[in-house]
Amino acid sequence: MMEQLLNGNFNEYIAILIFAFILIFSYTLNSLKIKLREKINFFHIYVVLIIVIIIIWKLWPDIWLQKIETITIIVLLIFFSIMPEGLSDKAIIKVGVFDGSFTKFKELAIENISSKKCTKIIFYLRTNASISMIIKEPPDTVKEFIMNNTTLKHLYKEK
Questions:
Q1: Is the pLDDT of residue 104 over 50?
Q2: CB–CB of 87/93 below 8 Å?
Q3: Fewest CB atoms less than 10 Å from the CB: which of 119, 126, 134, 142?
């Protein structure tokens, strides 16, 4: 082992170190995911990880050629550990079009939001955009949720 390091054949060790780093990084991020959900868009994390993988590929191309199985494990590890709310058993409520009044919200969404199982609400706006909110304590009604939320409150106009 020391002879390989002295001879400069340490690509396998670099691949193992990268794998260990990503394992520790994904475990730490997975444990912090609940605290960071409202502050970080996990798409940005995927982009950063792809950039890191490209940089490593450019710096040490022979690692990628020799260790395809290691790279496959790393990619699967990243995908399954950082996947935002991938296989959650809690409800995700998709609410209807939000056009400044609450008349467009479906009754089903209002019932489900009161069931105390909802962790995420997605509001579809008129502009084909959507606002995704992760909530800790589900309110009794959608209106109560919006009026207590500073991001959504400015969108609401009483008619």
A1: no
A2: no
A3: 126
